[in-house]
Write a structure and sequence with these properties.
With 267 residues, the protein is an alpha/beta fold. It is built from eleven helices and ten strands. Helix 3 runs parallel beside helix 6. It is globular. The chain binds adenosine-5'-triphosphate and magnesium ion. Belongs to the ABC transporter superfamily.
Length: 267
Amino acid sequence: MKPDQEVLISGKNITKVFGYGKNKNTAVDQVNFNFHRGEIISIVGESGSGKTTLAKMVMGLLKETSGDIEYKGKSRKLKSHRDRKAYWQDIQAIFQDPFSSFNLFHKVEKLLNDCIELQGLKLSKEERFEKMKEACTFVNLKFEELYNKYPFELSGGQMQRLMIARIFLLHPKVLLADEPTSMVDACSRSTILDMLLKLREENNMTIIFITHDVGLAYYVSDTLYIMEKGKIVEQGSADSVLMNPQHPYTQQLISDVPKLHEAWDLG
Ligand SMILES: Nc1ncnc2c1ncn2[C@@H]1O[C@H](COP(=O)(O)OP(=O)(O)OP(=O)(O)O)[C@@H](O)[C@H]1O
Ligand SMILES: [Mg+2]
């Protein structure tokens, strides 16, 4: 599937500075991006390069020090509760640490039901139950076994799949996935990726993967952004960036993955 030409989210000169004086740290430095509808983007960079900080600004969870983020061609306003609620209906995230994404005092049933309520659908109890079951089946979880559990009673992999079940229910326009497979084994990893790719096929979702795994980025993405020390040092189609890297940092990243094609040629 090819992404649309329509730019859904764009950033101009996005900068985030943490701390002051001697402790000043420019985590994201004058970053520009254009994410299109239906596009799969990977932001690749080593630990500490600013990927999560950038993701949090795109989500509106962290305020940029300077720069402008536009959504659907308009400068994004997130002042009121109403603005934020509307934005988060369209943009959802899965973070590295799934524990931080859930209210730990809510059982699985409520966590999923909240997603249905958020959309303002008027459904009967049975219809809601069916939808929650369908979402769990999509991610290979058994709703009957989990609905009465708290998030901390689930394994890391179950939590990550539960997060994808929520995405299934919310069907956002944009999904930001920050190391979404960090807590699962290699087999579940490709299953999780396939689930996300299927969601994109069905909903024309824009997916932004954040990872330091170049192989994974190549396997899933249309477009790559390579980050080093807060800056985007290279960007372009996954093929052009990885087959013909221009920047020394990208060349270094790739030399760390000598068998890129073989490792990710999953048939
Ligand atoms: N809340 C914060 N306060 C101060 N400094 C922060 C904060 N969050 C991140 N940083 C700093 O910003 C820089 C970028 O961190 P960030 O978490 O964005 O990196 P990352 O690319 O996501 O790394 P990783 O691959 O390890 O997740 C780091 O130097 C980090 O210490
Ligand atoms: Mg991170």
